[in-house]
Design goal:
The structure is a homodimer. The first copy, chain A, is an alpha/beta fold and about 325 residues long. Chain A has nine helices and 15 strands. Chain A folds into two domains: about 150 residues, Alpha-Beta Complex (Quinone Oxidoreductase, Chain A, domain 1); about 150 residues, 3-Layer(aba) Sandwich (Rossmann fold), CATH 3.40.50.
Amino acid sequence: MQNKQLLLAKRPVGMPEKDTWKMETSPIPEPEEGEVLIRQHYISLDPAMRGWMNDAKSYIPPIGIGEVMRAGSVGEVVKSNNHPQYKVGDYLSGWGGVQQYVVTDGKGYFKVDPNLAPLPLYIGTLGMPGMTAYFGILEVGKIREDETVLVSGAAGAVGSIVGQIAKIKGCKVVGIAGGPEKCKYLIDQLGFDGAIDYKNEDVRAGLKRTLPEGIDVYFDNVGGEILDTALSKIRMNARIVICGAISQYNNTTPVKGPSNYLSLLVNRGTMQGMIVFDYADRYMEAAQQMGQWLMEGKLKSKEDIHEGIENFYETFQRLFTGDKMGKLILKVLED
Amino acid sequence: MQNKQLLLAKRPVGMPEKDTWKMETSPIPEPEEGEVLIRQHYISLDPAMRGWMNDAKSYIPPIGIGEVMRAGSVGEVVKSNNHPQYKVGDYLSGWGGVQQYVVTDGKGYFKVDPNLAPLPLYIGTLGMPGMTAYFGILEVGKIREDETVLVSGAAGAVGSIVGQIAKIKGCKVVGIAGGPEKCKYLIDQLGFDGAIDYKNEDVRAGLKRTLPEGIDVYFDNVGGEILDTALSKIRMNARIVICGAISQYNNTTPVKGPSNYLSLLVNRGTMQGMIVFDYADRYMEAAQQMGQWLMEGKLKSKEDIHEGIENFYETFQRLFTGDKMGKLILKVLED
């Protein structure tokens, strides 16, 4: 048995190409005193990964050239060298990266229970994307009953949870997604009040159709033109949560700034950025609440699971083409 | 005696030209029952006036073609037709517009005392610009002791007060202004810790020189490139107060959106728009505090007073050329 690892080979310009990474096969590492060896089952694919590949100051250091590609993951402890907390058979979620085995002292990992929820959920709705949605819409968006909420990337891992939480809290929710299938899913399966298919409908016209009263809270995962259009339709004291800007991540030209930002002045609006790590001390609270909603059937979680670490590149591309449905996950476990 | 009034003649495109307005002379109006006639002394010139001339949805209706040009003003009651509150000899400040006499029922006006402060101050530091500065930096900027504050338009009516309040509250304050004279004024007269002359120094380099530790609060009066540069230098949890965007008001092309807005995400920053009218119920509190600071010498107020309603156009232009120092005021009273 060997450990397959995906290393960052070079810094991409624009949309990463296949040779951005290289696969290496090495012996399975041995845990030192106080460490565990985790056999990874699933790794998480997130738009934020694109940003971590840039050599730029950001909220975490960039991935170094030659380092394992950073990724959230979940797996099973298969060896423990006197780890004070974790033992063989425990399931842990953390930053295992795109590789099949990882050795860690356990910092940044937390134990999960595969009997309570399927493992992939711990890197999806009960993991970073879910936490991002929870704290983003509640703490930054500060939604109140009867407000209107617009979310972009609405069929994605974060957006789909944002919209459902807003529904649970009594808001009117409209999602922006690409393609009729995703839009139908938002309305029929997730209970959204409306959906705008940005690939087939002018977003401005779509907003007029679905939210003629205007937007109280806009949860932005995409940036670009859609952010600008949303800004032009905000209500008084609106909040705009800046969670991501997937439309801009592969730009080779400067990021498009929101020309309509003066709508914040006219409407006394607030635009605020958020990073989920700031809420780490409250993950447990959120996970418990989300778990309860899942069990009650109030929250639905969809995972789009692909197989094989060899298929990382093709799967990663789906983040940006939108050719996915729900949380994108790669199974790296081999039988 | 006649009443000279300046009417909006057409909607300007870009920088208004002289024929944007036309002067009319008409008989001095008579107050009806419950009204007063005010002989105006001073009118206020503010960048926001440019926005009011556009036929666009905003925080107040646009000025209609043929209507008196909207402006804040201060003057003396010279006739009262049984007004329940105001009598001849009272001084009132309100929205008298660019004209020498105005008749009003008193709504939106408040009484001022020329013995406590010179009349021009009531449309400057003790009027809208002062209130904007006070609530903008304290309520929206939420400054705390030892934070760093950057303010643009720093030698202007709002910016100069913003910076001085931040100094009073124990912040390190840097102002951006145009020209060495204004920058010297900020440091020597107003006690700013630093100044950046954007006409003669690269703002990015100026920030490195004066605020290498980064920006906690940026009070933005100008928008455009300076906003973008400031965004690139914010610290964690920074607040950006969007008060105006004078660099964009005469644009004939779309407003320049801030390309660096994703700095809000990386740094968990907040960008919030404000309109002073929202704080109307607290003007008294602010005016009393500002009056006290003025008397204690902690706050300095500079007025740039020009004479003659005929000179409105030339004076108005100074708002955008920057050829002024402090609060721009036009004396419309004729002896």
